[in-house]
Fold this protein.
Amino acid sequence: MCGGAWIVRDIGQAKHHARDAFMPIQDRTGAALHSTVVESISRYSRLLGDNRVGISSRS
């Protein structure tokens, strides 16, 4: 199982926080959806000028 978390900040004030655990992926559609979500979070972070997005997993 792996997970992800992100925080949207405005001048140091936390505006939004989200985290989720991703279950093991069973098929190609699930893998594509998982990749899309992670890429979207990364792109949204760059739009806001925040380069502190990290991705990690543990087996």
About this structure: The chain has a mean pLDDT of 72. Residues 39 and 45 are 10 Å apart (CA to CA). The radius of gyration is 13 Å. The helical segments are 28-47.
